[in-house]
Here is the input.
Amino acid sequence: MNIVVMGSGAIGSLFGALLSTKHTVTLIGRHDHVHAIKTDGLRIHGKTEVVVRPSVAKSIKEVYPLIDLLLFTVKSYDTLIASRQLALHIDEQTPILSLQNGLGNVEKISRFIPQRQILAGVTTHGSIFPKPGTIYHTGFGDTTIGEIHGKTTGRVQQICDTFNEVGITTTISKNIVAALWEKSIINSSINPLTAFFQCKNGSLLQNPLLESIVERVCEESTAIAQTNGFPPSSQNMVQKTKQVICETAHNQSSMLQSIQKGKRTEIDAINGKLVEVGKKHHVETTLNELLLYLVKSRVPST
Ligand SMILES: NC(=O)c1ccc[n+]([C@@H]2O[C@H](COP(=O)([O-])OP(=O)(O)OC[C@H]3O[C@@H](n4cnc5c(N)ncnc54)[C@H](OP(=O)(O)O)[C@@H]3O)[C@@H](O)[C@H]2O)c1
Here is the structure.
């Protein structure tokens, strides 16, 4: 397959590196990363140890437009700009798979690209981007992908098989939208608290007061999600969130990492989107709104 990764940072470069062991892969990324890969190859350390030499580009304009699969892995706040760039150059048959966290990414991409081209996925792999040309694979995880309409099409099956063949353990979901909501509820209850208190995920369960805040945020986020028909039981989501905290106890959340680097966070696509949906449906949003403001007060606003 001819695979292109739009937004080659931590997760895009990891997936691109693994896929490049069996496929033709082009990573679209920023100047320094592209230059480092051209010079020394892409080095993956940690849970995966490999050095690969995929093609690289700084823009979709440099890439041959007949692409079999485009992985879309920019942060949620870059979605509109990246989608606009793609729309001018990408073939109308190319499937675009978003592996982004947060709510509203598919809707943003579909402002520029027909929704029938877009698929979504969630992954629990962990990776960080310590320096250009180098990615650190912090944890193996599972990946779930699906068509937005939920049917198992030939193309989603092909992507699933392609991922599994290179060691990215993947299953197909008939309700990927629900999976995106579920991950957003969990992230809304973990990421802003770790970012504000500058702590690892596990600390949230070591303090009974913080644990109680996690539970209450999770219940509020779940009630908001229920206005969109998902998920049915808030008790279940609190348990799932605590399970994720235990499994990732030693991790620094992506939101905490962004704040430590002085970069923007995905708070708008997570708690911000929940506040927006909650207000529209006249559901309580106080805790999500508070976390939104606390995190936004710590990072640049542009
Ligand atoms: N990392 C993980 O473990 C993980 C796991 C699951 C899901 N995710 C999700 O995957 C998405 C990406 O996360 P990430 O951690 O991989 O972020 P990241 O390391 O910031 O990677 C995104 C990369 O895309 C670049 N970029 C942005 N717009 C671009 C454009 N128009 N053209 C070329 N390059 C562009 C960014 O450059 P600049 O930084 O210079 O803007 C950055 O290097 C997020 O939604 C995240 O929540 C991440």
